[in-house]
Every structure is written in C-alpha cells, then in structure tokens.
Amino acid sequence: MIAAKRSSAKSNPEMFEDVPVLKRKWHAALRPGERLPHYEDVMLGSLGRLADHIVLLKHNNDTIEVSRTGRYVQKWLGDDRWDIPLSALSPDCATALSEAALNAVAHCVRDGLVQTYDILALPTSSRWGSTLIGTYVNERAPQYNLLDAIFSTTDEGVLSLATIRDSAGEPFDFQIVHHNQGASRLLKLPSTDLQWRRLSAGGNLLCLPEVIERLLGVVKSGDRDQFEIDSDQRNLKLGATAFGDILALTISDVTALKRREASFRLLFDNNPMPMWVFDAETTGFLSVNDAAVQHYGYSRATFLSMKLQEIWPRDEWVSHKEALQQVGDSYHSGRNWGHLKADGSEIQVLTFGRRVTFEGRDGYLVAVVDITERRKAEARIAYMAHHDGLTNLPNRALYQDRLREALERSATGAKRVAVLCVDLDLFKNVNDSFGHPMGDRLLRLVADRLRSQVRGNNLVARLGGDEFAIILTSDVSPNEASDFAARLIKILSACYDIDGVEVVIGASIGIALSPGDGDTSEELMRNADMALYRAKSDGGGVHRFFEREMDRQAQKRRDMEVDLRRAFANGEFELHYQPLVDIAADRISGFESLLRWRHPEKGMISPADFIPVAEDIGLIVSLGEWVLREACTEAVKWPTDVKVAVNLSPVQFRSRNLVQVVVSALAHSGLSPTRLELEITESLFLAETEANLAILHQLRELGIGISMDDFGTGYSSLSYLRSFPFDKIKIDRSFVKDLAQRSDCVAIVRAISGLGRSLNITTTAEGVETMDQLDWLRAEGCNEVQGFLFSAAKPAAEIERLLARFGRRASQAA
Which helix (H) or strand (E) holds 239? Predict the structure, then answer.
C-alpha cells in the first residue's frame, strides 16, 4: 500500500478522513501469510462517496489498463472510457498513475492552469491472477495559472505591449496591457503607474525615444530584437518579440555582468602577465592580451589564427594533450611546460586557467608565467651547490656522493676504488709573496691540469684551500695508483707562467685503496688524509700509501689531544727553570722557564711530543698565558738582577691580544718589565711579518727584552736581525755540540759572536755540557751559556739552592 504524501500546501479536508478509512480497510483485509489482500475484501462493499475518487487499474505483466473509474476521477482524467490502456490517457495523468507506487503526488496542467492531486495506491490480488490496484485520487490545493506563477516569481521584467496605429495603419505608440512585479522593480515604478500606460506619456526608461524607435522596428519587421540601455548607473538588457500587434518585452538587469566584463577586460587587456582565452572544443585562440603578443612575438592576427598545439614543442604534444583532457573548471600546471615563441626559441612556463564563457563560446582563460630564467637560475644554484666557485671543480659534497656511489658499485664486483688526497707544496708562499688574487689564478691553473689528467668515470674535486681529492674507479692496482700519483706530482710541479711571473710549487699525495684501507667513504678519506700527512712530513713532493701504523699514530695523537685538554683543566703542568750563566761575571744572570707535563699514568712527557699538538689544537694560547703568569710570579722571589726568560709560540701572536696578556702577567706579579725576556723562533717571521713586528715593538717599548732562539737554523736569520733590534740571540745547541771536533762549528760560533758584538746584541750558547765547550765559547767571545754543565731545568723549589751554588765562579759549579 502506498500512502499519500503530505505537503506544506493547504490540503483538501476530506483527504484527512478518506485516507485513514482506506488504509484501515486495506490492512483489515490482509490475511496472515499473504502479500496482498483480495480485491473483493477491499474494493467491494460500501465505499460510499469514496467510489467516485477511485480508479481501478489492472496490472498484467508489463501493461496497465484502466478498468473502472469514478465520476471524480473521470473529471480529473478528462476521459470517461473504461477498459482502455493507460497510454490512452493524457500524459500527465498517465504518468502519475503508472508511477503511483513511487510518487503519490500528481500535477495536471489544463490550458495553463495547474492542479495538484494526492494519490493513494491500494494494490490487491484477484482471482484471475492479475493485480488490481485501486487508486484513490483527490485534489490537494487550489489550481493556479502556470504563466502567472512563472512571470510573478522571475527576477526579469515581463511586459505585454499593445501596438497603437494611426489612421493610415502605421504603428506609432504602445500601451502596457500586462506586466509582472519584476518589471515594476526594474523600471522603479509601482504597478498602478505602469498598467495601461502609453509609452508616449513618458515617465520610465521604456519611454526613451531610442527605445520606442527599436520597438516600432520590431513590430514593422515581425522579427526579434535585443539591445541594451544605460541609466542611473545601471545596464538593462531588453528583448522584444512581436506577435501581430502584441509585443512581448523582457527586461534583465545586466549591471553586474557588465561590471564583471569590464573587470575582466581590465584584468585581461592591461595585465602585464601573458594571458589568452582558447576555445575548449577547437583549442583555437579566441583572444590574447598585449603582454602575450609582446612576450611571444606573434602578431595578434597570427595568434588568433593559431591553435594551442602550434606553440607546443613537438616532443611535448602527447603530454600536453593528455594534460588538456584532464582539465576541469580550473587548473594550474603541476609541472613546467615548454612553449615556442615566434622566433623558434623555447621557453619554460607555468600555466593557470579557469573555464569561462567568452562571447558565447565555452573556453578557458589562461595566465602564463615564464620561468625560463628561474629554471636557469635554479639549475645554476644546483650546480653551484655541488661545485667549487673558484675552480669549477666538484666540491666536497659532490665528491662524497660520488665516492659513496663508486664504493657501492665496487662492492658488487669486488673491485678496488682509489682515493688520492692532493695538497700543494709552497702554495702559502705564493699567497704571501704575490697576494691572494695571484693565488686564486694559480688554483685555477692547477685545476685545469688536474682536469686534463682525470677523465672518464674518475673524479677530481677541490675540498678547500689548496687541497684537492681524486677518485679512481677503474679497479686500479697499487702500482697503477703509484704511477698515476707520481705523474700527477710531476705535472703539478711544472712551472706556471702568470702574467710573465714564473711560479713554482709542488704537490704531495696521500693514497688509500678500498677495501683494504676502508670500505666506506669516511674511512678512505680519513686514511688517505693520513697518508698525505706522512707525505708532507717526509718533505713533500712525494706520494705515500696509507699504512696501519699511520692509524696507530693518529690514534695516539687523538689520545694526546684529549689528555692535553684534561691535563690543563686538572693542573698537571708545571714549570722548571734552567739557569743562564754570565761567562764574564761568573754568576747566574737569569733562568729560562720550561714547561713540563707530569702525566698521572705515563709520567713526564717530553715537550717535543706535546708542544706541537698543543699548538695545533690552539691550547698553547691558554697554556702560554698560564706560563707567563706563573713565571713572572716566581721571578719576583729572586734577586732583582736575575731575569726570567719565557718562550712564546707563533700561535700566541695570532690571538692579537699578546701584549695585553704580558702586561696583565706583569701587573699581577709586580715583576719589572726589564726583568722579563721573551724568546721567539725564526718561524714567527714566516707569516704576517708586519703584524708580528708591530707586536714585538710594543713589547720592547715596555722595557721587555726580546731574544731570538735557535739562531742559525732558520731560513734567513740575518734579514730578521735587520727587521728587528733583538736584545739577545741564542746559538743553537747543534753548533755547540761539535765545537771541539769540527772547525766549521767553531767558525759559525765565531761569526755569530762577532755579529753580536758588532750589533751590540748579547749572545747565549745553548746545550753546553763539557768544560771544553765552555772554554771554546769563552775564547770566541760568547756572553752567556746554559746547559747540563751547569744544571738541568729544576722545579721552582730548587732555585734558591742553585742561586747559592752559583754564587761562586761558574767553573766551580760543575
């Protein structure tokens, strides 16, 4: 049973009484176990006035027939025939009855009038085997005029104008005989002011002469016409159609549309971004803006004769077409596309679009962003991220990536990969002598020579400074790697001509081979670097292979670095003092403070072992400051004519606060500056000479003595004596050791002593161990001596005893 649907519309009161009665009757006739009640139990008997509202439908297979109809139903159907097929009825009623099981509401239209009916279907079974459906029909609400309903609810204005003709039969005016509320609203007049009004009377937009003229033209021609009028910042669109002397007129407000079109034109035509509209079906260009014409180089006429594919590179046709087929109402390209300009050049673009209606055609508005330069810049940035800016060689990041890849490939084929670390010899001298611009040009020439020797799948990279690295991936043997390194050193060591200046440098190479020297990029690089360190230690200009002993030495050094930092924090360092003896006065003139490290497990560690490490890791700066303060504090306890000498490392000069550190140590201890001597080595002058000389002059102006240690063992000692007025030069122990056996040593000592007398510089001989050496030094005019002949370096607690012991003649002190 299909129940009637309820509606918010006002219903026929009888419906509320009839429907429950029929429902109860249908349910009462339904027997247990049966799907439908019998026809006789429902439809026969006393139905009273309900019988007039019943139509009996016979359902056989797929056909439905009208078997019987009541008088009300006959009026509704407009047909009083029985036993006719449903298709013989009017379509609206036939459709309502055939779909009664799905839709219990029917709408019938008669002469423009619409009536709504509610339907209740009561299916029953009959003894003849077919299904009989008793269908109740009753009107729901009053009927209404379809045209009035449409016209009254539309936003458009609808008017009917009667043509007024003159005595000659010519139309000259119109009278409004019908209009809807939309017309009143758009013409801004009440209905009473419009109804029966002649247009010639004026008072609204339709009365404009140009409007009347267009309407008269429609009546005369019998055609249709559409035109627009502008008034009160509004745009109205009029559509007129003539039916004899009656003119149907529609009015639409297109102000918003016009404004959107104006905004579109403003956005489109004057946009600096290339834009166009293309036909969604043909892909032909419908419109292009000035920016597109200028950017692509096609004339506007040429553009509008083309289709999209004509600006696509041929190798991208398929991908362009596939992307176009998947476009919805809006899109933006997820990738860059190639476009062809008029000159044949290809650009890379991003496109953004949306579906639009353009001049009545379905199309797409497209904006184009040219990213050609951006892509070039991105490619350049990506290249720069993996290449050295100066030499254009791969950098460390790319080198490490390629090395990892080479090792992965070699692991599957059990092949060797060789890593060569290359460091330039004497390159620093070029920078110091000719400046960094010359050094940069030299690095580029070195890179060119390296590039010429490293080919194929091999790789050369600049890791930084004057350090380069090479990967040999062709399963090289140790002999082949050795031959390659030797040849490379020879090539890199050949003279360079830079603007007429001949520059000579060398190269040292460290080699590590997988898998024996490591099977990861980190291991191979570390071990090749150790081999390079050995090559540099062996004088440079050679190549060395990694050996496990190097790893042991490197581990030993790393352990020392850790122990050094811990030792400084734990106060494991101490100062010992070795006396300086004045030969002429036969007394101690001062003490040289010497740093000692007493390791809690390893005992005393030689300064020759830990001082270079402390310099490399920068700890010597803090250590040197501690030594200065400790030595000055101890020296205050000595006789006022006894000086203290403190060694300075070249590393301390780099901190640029050395003068402040010395002044602070003197102030903290109260020691007179004239009692402090600072000893430096010739290596100090190999770097930043002018800055270091300035510091030395500041120290000397304070009254502090400056000594040059290990004189005669450096590169150009005599020129340094001209650069700075030293107070003392110390003759290296290597010349003192063989004084009694070698005449050349005697000659050197004699020359240095004579030089000191000529320049009024004190000379001190180191490493004096025998009386014969002392006699030779006295005979050659040396001023001071120090060495084991007098005393080894002693802790501060033994200084008083040493002073007392050396209060007599120095010759008696042994």
Answer: strand 234-243
